[in-house]
């Protein structure tokens, strides 16, 4: 895998992780969502007008474009496992921005993911 292809994959993964964090930020503004037949439209409108949610969806679209470019250059058996980097970035972002706990077990899982991605990238 060359540096350009790796860059498309990593940038797509980072945009996908950013999308998750933005969607979480948007839902924190909305609060817990409990849909009923009476409130689905009002809740949908409230969710759809949250700037973090709009930003998150935009990041998703951009990440898909980059992902398609990456898939045109590398085997899916190489590219798809690289998505696991998103778990690492999202966990760190959730800890930093939302104060979510990162336990020793989660930290160990992150290290395993990073080792796996490094091995995969070298293949």
From the spread of the alpha carbons, the general shape counts as globular
- Count of DSSP H/I helices: 6
The Cα radius of gyration reads 17 Å
Q: What gap, in angstroms, lies between the N and C termini? A: 8 Å
Biggest β-sheet description: none
Classification by helices and strands = mainly alpha
Count of the domains: 1
Low-confidence stretches: none
Helix content: over 70%
- Could you spell the SSE succession in H and E letters? HHHHHH
- How many DSSP-defined strands? 0
- What is the average of the pLDDT values? 91
Task: Describe the 3D structure.
With 123 residues, the protein is mostly helical. The chain has one domain. Helix content is 80%, strand content 0%. It is built from six helices and no strands. It has helices spanning 3-30, 40-48, 51-71, 76-82, 85-98, 104-122. Helix 1 (3-30) packs antiparallel against helix 3 and helix 1 packs parallel to helix 5 (85-98). The longest helix has 28 residues, at 3-30. The termini are close together.
